[in-house]
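Protocol step 4 of 6: structure prediction from sequence.
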Amino acid sequence: MLLARIRTFFSKGPSVDRDKTALRAERAFSDGRFSNAAVLFRELAGAGSVDAQVRLAQLYEHGQGVLQSFVEAVRWYRSAAEQGSVAAQSRLGEIYLTGLEPPAIATSSAIAHIESADTADTQGSMLKRLFPLGLSVSRDPEQAATWNTAAAEGGNAAAQARLAYQYATGSGVARDLAAAERWFLAAAKQDEVSGQLGLGMLFAGSYGEYGKPGRAVEWFEKAVAQDNATAKLCLAMLFLYSTDVERNHARARRLLQEAANAALPTAMFHLGEMYRRGLGVEVNRSQAETWLSRAAVHGHVKALLSLVWLFNSGPEPDANTAATRCRQAADLGDGEAQCMLGQFYLAGKGVPRDPVEAARWLSKAAEQGVTAAYERLGALYAEGLGLPQDYKMAADLFVRAAVSGDTNALCHLGTLEMAGLDGPPNPRAARDWYRKAAKHGNGAACLRLGIIYATGDHVRVNYVSAARWYAQAAVYGVAEGRYNLAFLHLRGLGVAQDLARGLSLLEQAADAGSVQAALALYYEFTDGTYGARDESAAAKWLERAADMGSGIAARLLVQMLDRGNPHTPPADRVLALLERCASLGDAAAQANLALWYLEGKYVPKDEHMSMQWFERAARGGSAFAQARLGDVLTTGAGGVQIDVAAAATWYERAAAQGHTGATLALTSMRMAAGAGTAEMSDIFRMWLQGAERGDATAQRMVGEFYLRGTGVESSMAEAERWLGAAAEQGNAAAMTLLAASILQDSEHTARLPEAIQLLQRATALGNADADYNLGVCLRRGLGIPRDVNAANRYYRSAAERNHVSAQLALGDSIAESANTDEARLEAAHWYRLAADGGSEHAKARLLQVQESMRGVESGPKMSMHG
């Protein structure tokens, strides 16, 4: 019994010793001897000291004198909290509300080892012995509510504010805004800034239907008085945007400035927005860029998006920087940025045009529920652009967009029904979709309805209805509505004919950005279709259209300049407009600039600059520029290295667009290289496409391919069909080939007069082959009476244009009847020219004539090339 009493006495120890130990522990901590402090605090904590348990928990939490361990910290906080420590309860409530990630000193490798279940992992086993309970503390809202409640009831203001937040958001407890108000107020009464801020946000409606903006201002002001940056931001938002609080832009700007200076990214963003949009201040792009960039550096994604708008607008937009910022925001997962980046790729704005990449980013945005992405992605599926064409998928996306309120999607659904792209055509359903879209303010739908009634597309033509819908489209800001309505007034269809009103509407449409309207005014004042001609006004509107980026207008100005039209703007102005259109990507304008620099026309001659513009134009799809690059790479003009393979590639691209010269060059290259049947079949198909479009040269080439059986099975009937089509369009080469094919067909002598007529038509058009062939017919009496003199005239006409066969034939004809040295000299002259052109027969004939001349022509003049 005595021994038990002694043990009990010593186990408790004298309180005076514990006090001394506590003092030593605090002194060690103050001196920075954390390890010593930890040993002493551990001794006291193990003996049940609440204060020591809290202090030891803090040492573990911050890694002072012990190996940092959040799990150990929580264990000691819990020991103190269970003994009634309000401070420990409050800290536990805070920890469980947010959770604690592994300490910064823990590497990802260490975390992986600790979390690994592999018992053979030696490193993991060692780390697990050091951290048996792990490195992090998971978020646990229910535990947070338990401990925040205990601390709040114990009077801890910070815990009261946290508990209020939990009630406001329904985190770990049932949502209860009245309870949230009660606890926020309890904290605020203790001058706890988070309580004041919480009340302000509660009354501002941040947590739902509790909006009382006047009271929100009151509590935000109290928090602002304590220099709380978040309160400054929230109060600024009320002054800027609340309809229940008097606007105060100046105060809002000052509050945002202070919050931004306190490194609050959202404040930086809204301050930048004030300067970008001119909210209570003058628009200041420099200040906007500064603050939005700072916000973006601090991770504010929407600031990147605002920078996109900033760089994409204004007098000097910077599409490249806008696209770069947009890509940054998109990579960070912002759906709106992903949608916008997709549209940049679709338009080739700041990035190369790439429908596939556009579809990829729009798909990402659609996955995040961005309504505009549904509509755009649906359009890509409908067009088969960047994605396989799929009208059903397009319709599904349009419906999703329409349900989300996208009126463009309603309009697209109408177009699918009208064209029968997702089933049989249904004009009635289409009109219903258009009307729904129009009812919700969609101008494009109004325009479509106007066109339907103006053209009688599955309805009776009704110009009155067309005019009404066009007018409604104009009200909704669709310039094409004014444009179409203008022509109804000019023609008096559905409305009274009114020249002044029609021209006024065209001017309004042009002022609204319609290039089409500006060009229409140019053509009207040029042709005077509805009123008087006015060349000066025509030139003004053409210049206006070019200034709006119309490459057609810029090229027409170039033509006016070349013709010396007195109403043309000065050459430097035309150059500026051409450069503007070229810089906007108009390939034809780029090709025009390339020609100017090549020829030194209106600009200093610069072959290097010319090549740069030709390359840009070629990449932009200009067939003329592509063919030109093919020529340069074939000949090495301008010092460019010859590259036949690259030349062929450019010729192919130009030929695919129907460029006749490129197709001819490609045909010559392939034939000279001994191309096989497959390659010549490809060439034939290129020509056939042009022939089917009505190109006379292509028709002639297709006829020749059929005639020779090159790249296609030989067919005299097809040859004559295509050669005949080309001949009807006045193609002299086709006339000659068709005549030759008739002449060579000995079974159809009845058609010889037809052949002669074709040759006569071709000779009248200056075709040297026709001259030669007609000469042959006259000399032999084929389909026409024999007439050697007439034959010689035709031979001579062709021979003088370096036609080798004609030179040989003329030499033969003259030599045959030559009975003077003068005649033999003339025959020798033509033989020599034919020999120089590569005719072996001419070389032999020349030798015979020279021998028969018995020295009349001697010395150097006897040389074949003399």
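Step 5 (inspection) to follow. The longest helix spans residues 15-30.
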